[in-house]
Fold this sequence. Notes:
Blueprint: H1 2-22, H2 24-32, H3 36-63, H4 70-80, H5 94-103, H6 107-134, H7 141-157, H8 160-174, H9 178-189, H10 197-225, H11 231-247, H12 256-267, H13 272-311
Amino acid sequence: MLVPLGLLALFVVGLAGLALSTGWGETFAHIARIGPGQLALLLALSLVNYLARAIRWHMMTRRAGLPTRPGQSLRHFLGGFAMSVTPARLGELVRMRWLYRETGRPIEQTAPLALLDRAADLGAMGLLLALAVAFTAGGGQVALWIAAGAVALAYAVTRPALMNLLVTRAWRGIGRFPRLFARLRRGVRVLEPFAGAGIAAPLLALGAIGWLAEGYAFHLLLAWLGADIGAAAAVAIFMSATLAGGLTGAPGGLGGAEAAMMGLLVLQGVPADMALAATAIIRVTTFWFAILTGIAVFPLAERLSLRVEHAR
C-alpha cells in the first residue's frame, strides 16, 4: 500500500505547487466553503457510482457462468480499487486472482471480464460526454471526437469475432508463443455471451448511472463554489478530463485528469484559484475516495478468498 500513499503525496505536492501560483489564500478559501454536509453528499454520489458498477460486475460474472454472489462481487469490485494506481489500472486484475481462488476458474478465462468492465466504462462515459456536449452551448468538436473514440473502442473490444481476428492476425505476424495465443483465443470466448444488445444495454446503463452521479456531483460542487457553468458543461468537463487522464496511461490518470479539468474550467471562465479548488475536491471525493475504499476492503477480500480456497 506504499504506492497509493506515494502517489497521494505527489498529488498533494502538485496541487500545493499550483496553489502557490494561483494564490494560497484564495484557493483554500474556496475549499473552506464546502461544509461537512456538502462533502458527505459528494461522497454519497461517488458511492452511487461504485455500487452501480459493482452491480454491473456481478452481472458480468454471472453471465460468464461464474457462481458468484452479490456480496462476493461487491467485495471483489471494491477491493480492486486499491490497485487503481497501477499503470492502466492493470493492478485491478487482482479481482481475477480472487475469482480463481473462490471459483477455480483460470485467470485467462476471467481476465476478459476486466477488459469488458473497462469497455463498459468507456462506452458509458463516451455516451454521456456526447450527450452533455450536445446540450452545451457551442458544443465542442474535441469532446465529441473523444466521445466517438471511446464508444468505438468499447464496441471493438466487445466483438468476439473482431477480437479473435486480431489475435489470429497477431499470431500470424509474430509466429511465436503458441500457448499464449491459444490462451488468448480461449479468453476471447468469454466475451461471446456479451455480444448481444440484450446484455450490452444494461451494462452501459449501469455505467451511465454511476458516472452521471459523479458528473452531477461536480456540477453541484461548482455551483457551491460560485462557478455554476451549467450541468451539461460540468458533466462534459468531468467526463473529458477523466477520459483524458486515462489516455495518458499514468496510474489513475494522475496529472493528466487534473490538468485537463483545470484547463477546461479556465476556458469556461472559471478563475484559476476556483478551478484548482474544484479539481482538488472532486478528485479527492471520487478517485481518492475509491482508493481509500479499496484499501479498506482489500484485506477482507484477500482473507476470505484464501479461506474459500483452502476449504475447496
